[in-house]
Amino acid sequence: MAINAKIDLARPDQRGLAVGIDEAFGYTGVAVGAWITGVIAGQTNLRPEPFYFLGAVVLLAFLISVFLIKETVQLAQLEGDDDHHDANLPFVDVLKRATYGDRTLFAAAQAGHVENFVDTLFWIAVPLYLTSQGLAIELVGVVVGVHSAMYFLQIGTGGLADRIGRRPPVVAGMFLAGAGVLGMVLVDGYLPWAVLAAVSGLGMALLYPNLMTVPSDAAHPTWRSAGMGVYRMWRDSGYGVGAILIGVTMQFASPEAAFYLTAGLMFLSGAVVVVWMEETHPEFGTHEPPAPAPADD
Questions:
Q1: Between the CA atoms of 177, 181, 182 and 187, what dihedral angle is there, to the nearest 10 degrees?
Q2: Topology of domain 2-276, CATH
Q3: pLDDT tens profile 237-254
Q4: DSSP 12-32
Q5: What are phi and psi of 64, to 5 degrees?
Q6: Local structure of 245: helix, strand or coil
Q7: pTM of the full predicted structure?
């Protein structure tokens, strides 16, 4: 909902920047929160002290949302034409449209699903692989942290898509992230691993906010939030599916095989984006929503 509110507040040609800001600060919050709770746990205990801090953060966020954040749905209502044939779709139709009824939205949904395999790989397989190669635990943390730190660049990559379109950063990001993952099992040494983790993170920073901007561009304002919700469902379910596939691959093949699998799926998913995703930028996009079904006589 925070992203939907920012999109409501932003101009159509600022949606990439709006999403980039939200995602960049969200991931920065995850990193800062992990560091603070780690410090608290190191100086006290694993529980309950870190949970006191988390409870205070949740309470503060709740109070801010109640007393400082204003409703933005009226801005979305003013933005759209309720008489347009694409307006006010029932949720079932939104689900169909955002899943398979629109090739551009399908391309975005499948790419969002697959790209989360990269995050899952860095959480599960990368630490195990690097420690098995003899890298010290503290340096493993640096390599994984370098990947995550690149996500702050989403502010810039989201703004970039407002100028050049959504499609180029998404395509570049899919192949760049896949190449970074693949390269990590083809090199050896702390510095090469850190560089390739940064390459993969840069690819994710290019694609992550701009994939989310695609459904916000393509959806009519009357069902934009629902369309974004469907996209997020398919995207975030990639964490679970990715964890299962990567875990099974590591168990029955090898950690290296998990890297090859993830990279291969990123390249395949990127190819789907190249073939099916149309440009959705509000000023120079080529995407048109599917024509309404003919009415029964």
A1: 130
A2: Growth Hormone; Chain: A; (1.20.1250)
A3: 999 999 999 999 999 999
A4: GGGHHHHHHHHHHHHHHHHHH
A5: -65, -45
A6: helix
A7: 0.86
